[in-house]
Specification:
Distance between the termini: 19 Å
Helix content: 25-40%
Number of domains: 2
CATH architecture of the largest domain: 2-Layer Sandwich
Strand content: 25-35%
CATH superfamily of the largest domain: Bira Bifunctional Protein, Domain 2
Largest sheet: 5 strands, mixed, barrel
Bound molecules: adenosine-5'-triphosphate, magnesium ion
CATH topology of the largest domain: BirA Bifunctional Protein, domain 2
Oligomer: single chain
Number of helices: 12
CATH class of the largest domain: Alpha Beta
Shape: elongated
Length: about 425
């Protein structure tokens, strides 16, 4: 892609009312556009980052047997009334509206109810189980406060997978399997280091659920971590009984603020019973399906990664989620400079390397500043000064380390 063909522009300032660093940086770099508090549009570069995050999650969900679907945002009230969650005292984040004829509608804040109802059309016998449908979808939640940029939106992307199992044992085995898939997701996103599978409250069907919490100063949650024992506990279940059960003591744990990037939850028959999702077992008896739900927040992750991997110059994306791998800066606008830059652009692109080519007629300083703000991992400069030697300047975004390389050396570096 050529910078001249992207309609967005970088800017020195973010909107005055934007207090979150992730949104300030992403807006300045032209990745997102703020529609209103907690509501953001994804622009060309931002859409690529979001898609890369989504693709990593998709690959890991497919690897554990996920079936990708796309449910509807518009929801009629019946099925939510059956589960007891239409009431705003139970679910306080609803956005509700009405059809022209007065019928109540809601914009889905999550999808347990409609999916449980949908699966009644396909699950009859034990032979139809287990199954693992999942989706990437925009969820709508009327969050009370939305001051954390992409990390707490009123409209945001979620990956939600639901497991439908015959027995508790079958459920437990999948729960462990998807937990490992979550570890791989956060590892691939560059968050392996500070992300902990955290004991959290479990509801009626399990003592605990598990949250995946990334330690961060901008987190809204408090967790207690023992790095030594690899255990983390959410404040909500942090008490003497739980500590004894997990075999840790208070002095082994440090208090951290953290961001919940995902969670896995045993639902049991919380939804299958009220909505009548049953199957006939081997002996011909009807039994409620045993369910679980598994969320990850791609929008929140994008905000967290932006915030986490940044410095005073701008963003600094980890390789796997960067919108492009290489920022190619052309210095000089004469035919020779252009031919040399075009040549390298083609050579790199032909090798499958994703290049963002700054072909604009701009000062070198402006191009370098944009490369830094955009946070592309590798910067390569084609300049008249180096062309006599057939050399290129290479700078790594994160370390700022600069090297002068031949084409072969450059290709080896970027391979
Ligand atoms: P929180 O406690 O932070 O409000 P939650 O428990 O409501 O989160 P879930 O309903 O389990 O979250 O949603 C699944 C995932 O979706 C979360 O782990 C998080 O990554 C993401 N998520 C939840 N709410 C938001 C939001 N308002 N904006 C962006 N992502 C969100
Ligand atoms: Mg919430």
């Amino acid at each position: 892609m050529r910078v001249s063909e992207i309609f967005t522009k970088t800017s020195k300032d973010a909107p005055a009312d934007e207090v979150a660093k992730n949104a300030q940086l992403l807006i300045r770099a032209g990745y997102i556009y703020k529609e209103m508090a907690g509501v953001y549009a994804y622009l060309p570069l931002g859409k690529r980052v979001l898609d890369k995050i989504i693709q990593i999650i998709r690959e890991e969900m497919n690897a554990v047997g996920g079936n990708e679907i796309s449910l509807t945002a518009l929801q009629s009230s019946e099925v939510w009334q059956a589960s007891g969650r239409w009431d705003e005292s139970v679910m306080d984040v609803w956005f509700k509206t009405k059809l022209a004829n007065g019928t109540d509608l809601g914009l889905a804040p999550t999808h347990e109810e409609p999916l449980t109802k949908l699966m009644k059309a396909y699950i009859r016998s034990y032979k139809d189980l287990p199954v693992y449908p999942y989706q990437f979808q925009i969820k709508f939640r009327n969050e009370l406060r939305s001051k954390s940029g992409l990390m707490r939106g009123r409209e945001f992307w979620m990956k939600d997978l639901y497991s439908f199992s015959r027995t508790r044992e079958e459920h437990d085995a999948f729960y462990e399997k998807i937990s490992l898939a979550y570890d791989r997701v956060f590892e691939r996103l560059g968050l392996g280091e500070g992300t902990y599978k955290t004991f959290a409250s479990g509801g009626s069907f399990a003592k605990f659920s598990h949250e995946f919490q990334t330690v961060s100063p901008v987190g809204e949650d408090t967790i207690y971590v023992s790095r030594e024992k690899g255990i983390a506990i959410n404040q909500e279940v942090y008490n003497d009984e739980v500590l004894a059960e997990l075999g840790v003591t208070r002095d082994e744990l440090t208090e951290e603020t953290a961001v919940e990037v995902g969670n896995i939850f045993t639902l049991g028959t919380r939804f299958s019973e009220p909505l009548g999702l049953t199957f006939t077992d081997e002996s011909g008896q009807a039994r409620p399906v045993f369910m679980g739900s598994y969320g990850i927040g791609p929008s929140r992750l994008m905000g967290l990664i932006a915030e986490h991997f940044s410095d005073d110059k701008g963003l600094a994306w980890p390789q796997n989620v960067a919108p492009y791998s290489v920022y190619l800066v052309q210095i000089g606008t004469d035919d020779e400079a252009t031919a040399r830059a075009e040549d390298l652009y083609k050579t790199l692109s032909d090798k499958g390397i994703e290049v963002l080519y700054d072909d604009r007629d701009e000062r070198p300083g402006a191009k370098f500043a944009d490369a830094e703000l955009l946070g592309i991992p590798h910067r390569v400069t084609v300049s008249p000064r180096l062309s006599a030697d057939g050399a290129y300047e290479y700078v790594e975004r994160t370390s700022g380390q600069q090297e002068i390389l031949t084409l072969d050396q450059l290709l080896a570096k970027l391979a």
